[in-house]
Write a structure and sequence with these properties.
202 residues; mainly alpha; Single alpha-helices involved in coiled-coils or other helix-helix interfaces; AhpD-like; 11 helices
């Protein structure tokens, strides 16, 4: 008879990286920290995001990804959670990342209470009803994703003029750069979004 501790330390059979990506990867045993994290996701969201399932083939990769994601997207920042999610959607739209557009578009709809905002950001953020601060932030985030080598002092100055602090400018760049990487990984491995995202915030 399998004890509860050993059951909790393994990725359940339904959470197989091969089921949510185009790669035939096997689930690795979850560390105690990641087992608790998966349980927390189940309790809070009702499911484990497929990005975590995908990274679950290797604990060092999963733990590093989760820690960096949580630091950028959930830790205290001068940027609100909604602003960070807006950056995620605009960068993901530039990179045409199916997974991140679905997952973070849902987050924008939920956090803003404005389904149309999530749609506009996914298709063309310039059509969205944005405050000047938000527009400046998203213009900069797009440039990070599209042509970071072309960023110059006037680009940073526009953010300062919009009211962003030096630390907030760092955070805008960090979130945009993180999603530029995540978009490429998700697309490269054929990562599929959780079906639950599609109906959220509508």
């Amino acid at each position: 008879m399998t004890n509860k501790k050993s059951e909790a330390s393994m990725v359940p059979s339904r959470q197989n990286p091969a089921d949510v990506t185009a790669l035939d990867l096997k689930p690795a045993p979850l560390s105690p920290e990641m087992a608790a994290y998966f349980t927390k996701c189940e309790e809070k969201l009702g499911f484990v995001p497929n990005v975590l399932v995908a990274y679950g083939h290797a604990m060092p990769k999963l733990e590093t990804f989760a820690a960096f994601y949580n630091e950028l997207m959930l830790a205290p920042s001068g940027l609100t959670k909604l602003e960070r999610e807006m950056i995620a959607v605009v960068v993901s739209a530039e990179n045409r990342c199916w997974y991140c557009l679905v997952a973070h578009g849902a987050a924008v709809r939920q956090l803003s209470g404005r389904p149309e905002l999530g749609e506009a950001l996914a298709f063309n953020y310039r059509a969205a009803d944005l405050a000047p601060r938000e527009r400046a932030m998203l213009d900069f985030a797009l440039k990070v994703a599209r042509a970071s080598a072309e960023i110059e002092e006037p680009d940073r100055a526009r953010l300062r003029e919009a009211g962003f602090s030096e630390a907030e400018i760092w955070d805008i760049a960090a979130v945009a750069a993180f999603f530029a990487m995540s978009n490429r990984m998700a697309s490269a491995v054929g990562m599929q979004p959780n079906p639950e995202y599609h109906a959220q915030g509508r």
